Amino acid sequence: MAADLDRVVVITGASSGVGRASALAFAARGCSLVLAARRAQVLEEVAEECRTRHGARTLVVPTDVTDAEAVDHLAQRAVTAFGRIDVWLNDAAVAAFGALEDIPREVFRQVVDVNVLGCVNGARAALAVMRGQRHGTIVNMSSVVGAAVVPYNTPYVLSKAAVRALGGTLRQELRLAGQHGIHVCTVLPATMDTPFFRDAANYSGRAVTPMAPVYTPERAAKTVVRLAVKARREAYVGPAGQALGILSKLTPPLVERVLAHQMDRAHLSREHAAEPTDGNVLEPSADPASVGGGWHGHRRTALRRLGAAGLVAGLGAGAVYVRKAGAAG
After folding, report:
1. pTM
2. Taking the CA of residue 230 as centre, how many other CA atoms within 13 Å lie in the half-sphere pointing to its CB?
3. What does each C-alpha distance from 39 to 67, 109, 257, 280 come to in angstroms?
4. For 65, which of 50, 118, 203, 274 could close a Cys bridge (C-beta 3.0–4.6 Å)?
């Protein structure tokens, strides 16, 4: 992609992980950035990095995405500073691990509010600007679990399925309104090496570890930037995620059984216990923010990747068997 991509980009959840990686990726291509998250100091650090490394124009707007008025203010600040909004990335998200009945009601509600209403508020604010411009791209960050569900993470799974559905309804409404210059894209990443697992709420009694394969947040950021240039309905990040998305349509009972086993064996540690914590769900984390979470490249993760390859291969073989059996019947 050309280094002189001239776009005004608003990013929620810009303080860490994929949001922060996307800010740096857009900055490297000459974009102007409006960075939003709950922690002002961390946003200033991201903005300084984008300016120092890439000379990007940046604006920091601390924002709680569950506050609709605050998100509208974010959009207004972007237009006042840069005159337009070309891309809006809804990336802010939190999670809570544990059995359904063990997750406190207020934590469950907050996960849904941040992940779903945060995207809704962002989309509404972006559309209010983009309809007048008659152009723009909204990118909503869903997850592979929005297509292939897992246990012990119910509020997150529900929210990511809802985000995926949101993309479809918005595309339909824009098409019916004749707004062909406005695009809505959904990204479905597999496991990302971000602080997500460290910061999540956890009521499972076991430590949370990434389920292989683990991809870098920079890989997801590249996908986001590509969608800003050439919009697509949906884009998976990582071949394992795409395979699970396909197989969940072909053989949903098999995928449910295998992913339940994998979640129980690999995602929640059997070796390490964890005290209950609400993580960064109700309040921002006090830990340092970063792009990566320190998982990518670890030997343990590499070994899990081999197991994941077997999982996908096994699911694929199971799907073929089921289809042949159905045809024979």
Report:
1. 0.90
2. 4
3. 15, 21, 39, 11
4. 118
The tokens of 91 are what?
A: 């990336």
Q: Helix, strand or coil for residue 89?
A: strand
DSSP character string of 139-198: EEE--GGGTS--SSBHHHHHHHHHHHHHHHHHHHHHHHTT-TTEEEEEEEE-EE-STHHH
- Please report, for residues 15, 195, 198, 279, the alpha-carbon distance to residue 290 in angstroms, rounded to integers and kept in the order given: 7, 7, 12, 16
Distance CA(9)–CA(158), nearest Å, equals: 27
**What is the C-alpha to C-alpha distance for residues 89 and 106, in angstroms, rounded to an integer?**
26
What is the rounded average pLDDT of the residues 115-132?
Answer: 98
Active site residues: 156
Amino acid identity at 64: D
Give the number of C-alpha atoms closer than 13 A to the C-alpha of residue 270, restricted to the C-beta side: 6
Cα angle 107-121-100, degrees, rounded to a multiple of 5: 25
The H or E element spanning position 34 is: strand 32-36
Cβ 116 vs Cβ 39: under 8 Å: no
Q: Name the 3-class secondary structure at 66.
A: coil
User: Percent of the chain at pLDDT above 70?
Assistant: 89
Residues 6+ apart with CB under 8 A from 18: 91, 141, 189, 192, 194, 217, 220, 221, 224
Extract the tokens encoding 171: 């595309």
pLDDT digits (tens, 9 = 90+) for 268-326: 998 899 999 999 999 999 888 899 888 765 434 443 444 444 455 455 544 444 444 44
